[in-house]
Write a structure and sequence with these properties.
Radius of gyration of chain A: 17 Å
Low-confidence stretches of chain A: none
Largest sheet of chain A: 4 strands, mixed
Shape of chain A: globular
Helix content of chain A: 40-55%
CATH architecture of the largest domain in chain A: Up-down Bundle
Strand content of chain A: 5-15%
Structural class of chain A: alpha+beta
Oligomer: homodimer
Strand order of the largest sheet of chain A: 2-1-3-4
């Protein structure tokens, strides 16, 4: 059975758990508290030298890091990932956009507001993330004003990747009321079979 | 014919041009000077709302953003990208690692040293990128101490993605002498058929 090492407040981990729920796949969940350094122990670094969650351990004991790689691995051959061509490339375009332009400001502001003492330095860091975060949301809004889903005309792992931190962007101080097309898309994602809320009392599929 | 919009000092663009050279594919190159705001004009934003280079325009006029997506699109069905399974996921793991953990500090320090006035604020920004950049290089060094290539036992787009900014990391103040396994890997990449240097006087394949 698959084992997922995760910190449940992480949107990156939620992406993988959401896809596993859509797919109806069972897995073992091992929680690692990043705030207590549990991903920086020698044992954990032996599994993932980059010291991050989520981390997916396969049946043979080998580990796969990076939520984007896991979504592609688990999505292969399912409706959540096109088989190839420009549609598959478009999925990846949005997933790389998410990791480079979207997640750093939006998850970064949220993390600092939820887990850091609000010193002047931390407040300044959050303030510096405002403009790039709004820019990323603006790019999403423009896209979603023209279409229902980010790629391939259907719900894919690109939507899952962008949903995770967008739907809790308010926890980083971003006001989604300014982005009506994003709001409608969030509702569409929430209506997908198998959807469950982040930080749910009981995670689906957890053995 | 493919058209690549690019800024030649960008490692992200170099990744795509390097793969095109390996594949022996011709393309039209359109230079956009990011320092002069040429990727923020209305015409450019209509092609890429995220306002970044590189941008790949296909024969039908549609555009693909994100170098990682382009490498996967162009690499599909070639030896540079495994067909599927864990090997393909491993390629993506390293490509997402590059965009999230490696490129921001390493390319970020290089960009600020090459293109920004060295004010106290900019110097402090560069200093703050030192530790995450060294951490990313440390992860690469550990991997390359154990194997020649990042995925699938051969040179893939994961190596291309990581090579682009690693081989010019010294321009961001990182001393690669501390990373001997990375040094040997850089030599192996340089020995690949079709390799050409970043900022070459004549770009291979440019029509």
């Amino acid at each position: 059975m698959l084992t997922l090492y995760d910190y449940l407040d992480s949107g990156n981990g939620y992406k993988v758990r959401l896809l596993l729920a859509h797919l109806g796949r069972d897995y073992t969940l091992v929680e690692k508290d990043i705030m207590k350094g549990e991903t920086r122990t020698p044992d954990y670094l032996a599994m993932n030298p980059n010291g991050r969650i989520p981390l997916l351990q396969l049946d043979d004991g080998s580990c796969l890091a990076e939520s984007g790689a896991m979504l592609n691995y688990l999505g292969e051959g399912t409706p959540y990932l096109p088989n190839g061509g420009i549609e598959r490339a478009r999925v990846l375009q949005w997933m790389f956009f998410e990791q480079y332009s979207h997640e750093p400001p939006i998850a970064g502001a949220r993390f600092r507001m939820r887990h850091k003492e609000q010193t002047d330095e931390v407040k300044a860091q959050i303030e510096a993330l405002r403009a790039p975060g709004e820019a990323a949301l603006g790019v999403m809004e423009g896209e979603l004003a023209a279409r229902d889903w980010f790629a391939a005309g259907r719900y894919t792992i690109a939507d899952i990747a962008l949903y995770a931190y967008t739907h809790v962007a308010d926890q980083g101080g971003f006001d989604l009321a300014a982005y009506p097309a994003i709001g409608r898309w969030l509702d569409r994602v929430k209506a997908q079979p198998g959807w469950f809320p982040m930080l749910a009392p009981e995670e689906p599929g957890v053995a």
